[in-house]
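Renewal narrative, Specific Aim 1. Our central claim is that a sequence can be written position by position from structural information alone. The example that follows is taken directly from our test logs and has not been curated for this report. It begins with the C-alpha cells describing the chain, in the order in which they were read.
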C-alpha cells in the first residue's frame, strides 16, 4: 500500500488516495465521530454560494465536500488529481457531471482553468496534502474573480500548547488503530496523523494566505481548533 511522506510527493499522495478511495467517506465519518458533517456544513455557510455562481471545490476527492454548494443553485467544479477518488465520486452519482457538480481532473499546482473563472474557491482537507502550499494558494487566487472569496477548511491546532500535544499523541495512537478495523491501508492514516501535527497553526496559515495575495484574511475554530476555517478575498 502506498502512503505519502511529509515531503508530499504528488505521485505518492495521488496513489495513496487512489488506494483508500472506496472507504474514504466511511472512515471520515467513523474517525471524526460524525463531526465531519458539522464541519462541512460550516464550510457551506462560509462559502455562501448562490444561484448563478460558479464555485471551485479543489482537492474535492469523491465530491462529498462539493454537493452542498449547489443547494442555492450554484454550479460546482470538483477538481482533484486522484483518478481513484474522482472515479468513486462519479460512480456514486451516476456520472461525472450530475446535479450541478462536474468532476474535473487537475493539479492544484497548475489548475486547468483560465484566470478569474470562479466566484468562490474552496478546499477542504486538501491543502495539507499539497506538495507546494504557497503555489496552490496563488493558483487559487489566479482562478478567482476579482472580489471573489476563498474558504480553506483544514485540520488545525488546539490553542493551548499542552492540550495540543496530548491531542497529537491521541492522533498518532488512535487513528491508525481505529482505521485498522475498516481498511488494510492503515499507513494512510498514520500519514493523516503525522501531516496534521506537522501543519501550521491558525496564525501561521493566515500569514501564508496573505503572502499569496489574499486580503481580509480571518479564521474561526471548529471543535476547539481541531479544524479551522480560513477565509480571504481577492481584492485586485
Ligand atoms: C483528504 S482528501 C479531501 C477530499 C474532500 N475535499 C473532502 O473534504 O472529503 C484530500 C484530497 O486532496 C487531493 N490532492 C492532494 N494534492 C492535490 C493536488 N496537488 N491537486 C489536486 N488534488 C490534490 C487528493 O487526491 C485527495 O483527494
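The sequence written for that structure reads:
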Amino acid at each position: 500500500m502506498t502512503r505519502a511522506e511529509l515531503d508530499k510527493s504528488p505521485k505518492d499522495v495521488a496513489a495513496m488516495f487512489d488506494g483508500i478511495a472506496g472507504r474514504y467517506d466511511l472512515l471520515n465519518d467513523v474517525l471524526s465521530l460524525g463531526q465531519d458533517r458539522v464541519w462541512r456544513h460550516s464550510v457551506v455557510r462560509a462559502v455562501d454560494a448562490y444561484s448563478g455562481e460558479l464555485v471551485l471545490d479543489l482537492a474535492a476527492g469523491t465530491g462529498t465536500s462539493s454537493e452542498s454548494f449547489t443547494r442555492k443553485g450554484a454550479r460546482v467544479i470538483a477538481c482533484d488529481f486522484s483518478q481513484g477518488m474522482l472515479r468513486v465520486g462519479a460512480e456514486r452519482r451516476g456520472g461525472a457531471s450530475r446535479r450541478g457538480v462536474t468532476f474535473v481532473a487537475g493539479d492544484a499546482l497548475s489548475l486547468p482553468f483560465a484566470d478569474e473563472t470562479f466566484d468562490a474557491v474552496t478546499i477542504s482537507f486538501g491543502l495539507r496534502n499539497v506538495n507546494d502550499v504557497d503555489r496552490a494558494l496563488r493558483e487559487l487566487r489566479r482562478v478567482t474573480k476579482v472580489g471573489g472569496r476563498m474558504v480553506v477548511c483544514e485540520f488545525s491546532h488546539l490553542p493551548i500548547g499542552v492540550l495540543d500535544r496530548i491531542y497529537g499523541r491521541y492522533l498518532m495512537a488512535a487513528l491508525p488503530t481505529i482505521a485498522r478495523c475498516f481498511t488494510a491501508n492503515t499507513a494512510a492514516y498514520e500519514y493523516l496523523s503525522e501531516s496534521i501535527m506537522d501543519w501550521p497553526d491558525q496564525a501561521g496559515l493566515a500569514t501564508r494566505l496573505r503572502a499569496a495575495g489574499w486580503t481580509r484574511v480571518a479564521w474561526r475554530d471548529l471543535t476547539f481548533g481541531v479544524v479551522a476555517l480560513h477565509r480571504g478575498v481577492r481584492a485586485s
